[in-house]
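Example 3.2
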Amino acid sequence: MIVKAIVGSDTIKNKIFIQVGYKPQTPIISELNDSTLISSAAFGNQWYNHYGKISNAVDSFIFVNMSGEYFVQVDSNGCISDISESYIYIHQYNQYDPPCDTITWAGGFDFENWMDPQNWIGGIIPDSCTYVLVPIGSTVRIRDFSTAVAKKLLNMGYIYIQGWGKLHVMGPDSFGIKNVSSTFINNGTVVIENSFYGLVNQNSSFENQNKLNIFGIDSIGIFNNNLSTFSNVGTTLANILPNKAIVNSQSTIFNYGQLMLKSKIR
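Structure, written as tokens:
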């Protein structure tokens, strides 16, 4: 830098230090044991799953209890690695999974509203640790702006979800939703995750008129069998790990909407 004085000039020399960072190597995920994934990077990790970023998951390892896709990315002084390849984790069901109760539909109140406790034997609305049973001859409605949850659902009656209603079947269990000689009409949103089978139709009719999302499934996403009908008018996304998105056996599938299927094998 040249500074002019009254007489002549002077020179001031400043040292500028530039720190050059390097892009970290893309991390690799491996399975440490039945419930722990580990990154190849010791520091700077951020874990993700099929939902997105996992809060506070910044160690080199992560404890997992849900089937699905997992990713990790490394931040080294502000330099970000490429995200890792997805790792497909399959949850092994065991005696440590929390015990759950079965709640049976009784009906007869508030126009068959799922969210009315009077419609359930015992007066308790199902939660995420509930096996739900809808008996033969029953009618169940999930209304607009309601979110119904269950661990798994066995339907032998008639279920209808309104346009702004939602059913979230969380697992883990042998199946998410099983329809037996029944009818299920979804005009809202159905999410099935973290089970061995996702949606099972047995001599039943399932019609998706809006959104059906199935993921984190260990075997078959949609198992349509024994003279069943699966109709998709809306959007069905089946992200199935690690096997088949749809199996159709002696049954019929109609697709008039968007049917997006993704299957991977570890």
